[in-house]
Design brief:
The complex is a heterodimer.
Chain A: H1 7-45, H2 51-66, H3 69-79, H4 85-110, H5 114-122, H6 127-155, H7 169-180, H8 183-211
Helix pairs in contact in A: 1-4, 1-6, 1-7, 1-8, 2-4, 3-4, 4-6, 6-8, 7-8
Chain B: H1 2-10, H2 12-43, H3 49-64, H4 67-82, H5 88-114, H6 117-125, H7 130-160, H8 163-166, H9 172-183, H10 186-218, H11 234-241
Helix pairs in contact in B: 1-9, 2-5, 2-9, 3-5, 4-5, 5-7, 6-7, 7-10, 7-11, 9-10
The chains are: A mainly alpha, B mainly alpha.
Chain lengths: 214, 245
C-alpha cells in the first residue's frame, strides 16, 4: 500500500522543507563567515615568527581536519547543553571548515610576490600595515573562488545539524517521514532541493574561477 | 575518568567489532568509489556524446545531493518504494561509494587531462592501441597526480562513516556512544573517539603516501625521504570538495 510514490505527500512536505531550508541557508552563510574569518586568523598565525605559535596551531588544525564533523557536533552539543543548538552548529561547522580555508589563504598569501614583502620592508611599514594594506588585499582576491567552493560543500553538510536538533531542512524531512510514514517523498524532495540549490552555485563558481584566471 | 577506562576495557569486544564495521565501511566504500571514479572519469573523456552525458549527469547528481540525504534515502526511502531492504552497512557502502566516486571521477578526469599532449602523440606515433596507450603511457602518469586528491577523499570518506550510527549500524561511534551513556563521561568519551578517528586517518595517510612513493618511483621521479610523513594539503580538497572542480 505504501509502495507507491504519493505526489500529494510531496505537496504536503514542500512548505515544511522550504521552512527548514531558511535555517539551512542561515547556518551555511554564518558558518562560512566564521570559517572565512577564523581561517584567515589561522593562516596569519601560521606565519608567526615563533615556532611556539606555529607548531601547536598546525597540530590542532591537523587534528580537527582529520576527525569527523559529526563527532565534533554531537560532542559539542553534549558538553554545552545550555547553548542554542543552532549556535553550536554554526560554530562547529565554522571551526571545522576554518582548518580547510586557512590552507587556501596560506596558498593565496604564498602567491603574493616576494617583492611586495620587500617593498613593504623598504618603506618600513609596520607588520600590521604590511598585512592590511599590501598583502591581504592581493591574497584575498585570489582565494575567493576556493572559499566559495567550501561554502558549497558546507551547504551539503548542514544536514548533520539535524542530529543536534537544529530545525533545518533534513530535520523537517525526517519529522515528516516519521509522522506520516512517508520517508520516500520527504527525502527525495530534500535531495532535489539540495541539487537545485547547489548545482547552479557551483556553475557560477566555476565561471568566476575562469574569469579570475585560474 | 577511571570509570570510563575500566568500562572501556570491559567493552573491548564491542569496541573491536565497532572498529571493524567502521573499517569495513571505509575500505569497501573506498573500493566502490575507486571503481566508479575510473568508470565515470574515463567515460567523461570519451569522444561519444552519450557516454560523456551519462557520466556528467551521474556525477552532478551524486555531488549535488548531499551524502546525508543519499544515505537516508537508501535506508528509509528505498524499502517502501522498491520493496528491497538493505542492511545498514550495505547502505553505507553504497552511499559512500556513489558519493565519493562522483568526486573521484573529477579527479580522474583532471589527472588524465593534465598528462602532456605530447605523450598521447608519441604513443600514437608508436602505433599503440588505445587500450595499450592508456594502460602503459597515460594512466601511470595520471595516477601519480591522482593519489593526493584520492587521499583527501579517502579521509573524507572515513570522516563520513559515523553517519552509520544514525542508521543503526554498530560502528565505532555507536560502541563509544554506548559507553558514554553508561558511564556519563561525556568529555572523555568524545575525546577518545576523536583520537581513534585521528589515528585511523593518519594511518590511512601514511599508506597513501607509501603508494604515492611507489608510483613516483616507477616513473623515475625523485621521492625524498620525508615524503612519507608529509601531511595532506587541504587546497587539493578545495578542488574536489566544492563541487566545482
Amino acid at each position: 500500500m505504501k509502495s507507491d510514490f504519493d505526489w500529494g505527500a510531496v505537496g504536503d512536505a514542500l512548505p515544511l522543507l522550504i521552512d527548514g531550508f531558511w535555517t539551512t541557508l542561515l547556518a551555511t552563510v554564518l558558518g562560512t563567515l566564521v570559517a572565512a574569518v577564523l581561517g584567515l586568523a589561522i593562516a596569519v598565525a601560521g606565519r608567526a615568527p615563533s615556532r611556539l605559535v606555529t607548531v601547536p596551531v598546525k597540530a590542532l588544525m591537523e587534528f580537527i581536519r582529520s576527525t569527523p564533523l559529526l563527532v565534533q557536533l554531537v560532542g559539542a552539543a553534549a558538553l554545552f547543553t545550555s547553548v542554542e543548538p543552532l549556535t553550536i552548529g554554526i560554530v562547529v561547522l565554522g571551526v571545522h571548515y576554518a582548518t580547510y580555508t586557512s590552507e587556501v589563504y596560506r596558498a593565496g598569501i604564498d602567491g603574493v610576490p616576494k617583492g611586495q614583502w620587500e617593498a613593504c620592508r623598504a618603506l618600513s611599514l609596520t607588520p600590521r600595515r604590511t598585512w592590511q594594506a599590501v598583502i591581504l588585499p592581493q591574497a584575498v582576491r585570489n582565494v575567493l573562488p576556493a572559499l566559495g567552493n567550501y561554502a558549497i560543500s558546507m551547504f551539503k553538510e548542514t544536514p548533520y545539524l539535524a542530529v543536534i536538533t537544529v530545525h533545518e531542512m533534513v530535520y523537517q524531512a525526517r519529522n515528516y517521514g516519521t509522522e506520516h510514514f512517508r520517508y520516500t517523498e520527504a527525502f527525495t524532495l530534500a535531495g532535489l532541493i539540495f541539487l537545485v540549490a547547489s548545482y547552479p552555485t557551483s556553475l557560477l563558481m566555476r565561471k568566476l574561477e575562469k574569469r579570475l584566471g585560474h | 575518568m577511571n570509570d570510563f577506562f575500566s568500562a572501556f576495557a570491559d567493552d573491548l569486544p564491542q569496541l573491536r567489532s565497532g572498529l571493524w564495521v567502521t573499517l569495513e565501511a571505509t575500505v569497501l566504500g573506498a573500493l566502490l568509489a575507486l571503481l566508479l571514479s575510473f568508470v565515470l572519469g574515463l567515460m567523461s573523456l570519451s569522444r561519444l556524446l552519450l557516454s560523456r552525458g551519462v557520466s556528467r549527469v551521474v556525477v552532478e547528481f551524486f555531488r549535488g545531493t548531499s551524502l546525508y540525504v543519499q544515505l537516508f534515502w537508501l535506508y528509509y526511502a528505498m524499502p517502501p518504494l522498491t520493496g528491497y531492504e538493505l542492511t545498514p552497512l550495505v547502505c553505507g557502502v553504497l552511499a559512500f561509494g556513489l558519493n565519493y566516486g562522483a568526486y573521484g571521477a573529477e579527479v580522474v578526469r583532471g589527472a588524465v587531462n593534465s598528462v602532456p599532449r605530447g605523450q598521447y602523440e608519441a604513443a600514437l606515433a608508436l602505433n599503440m592501441s588505445p587500450l595499450h596507450r592508456m594502460r602503459k603511457v597515460i594512466l601511470p602518469q595520471a595516477w601519480v597526480q591522482m593519489i593526493p586528491s584520492f587521499t583527501n577523499l579517502l579521509i573524507q570518506l572515513l570522516k563520513a562513516t559515523p553517519l552509520l550510527w544514525l542508521i543503526s549500524a554498530a560502528d565505532l561511534m555507536t560502541a563509544i556512544e554506548k559507553l558514554r551513556s553508561r558511564t556519563g563521561e561525556t568529555l572523555t568519551a568524545y575525546v577518545t573517539l576523536l583520537v581513534c578517528y585521528f589515528v585511523l586517518a593518519y594511518a590511512l595517510t601514511l599508506l597513501m603516501n607509501l603508494l604515492e612513493r611507489s608510483a613516483k618511483r616507477r616513473l623515475g621521479l625523485a621521492t625524498g625521504g620525508k615524503s612519507l610523513l608529509k601531511s595532506r594539503s587541504a587546497v587539493n580538497a578545495a578542488q574536489t570538495a566544492g563541487g566545482a572542480g
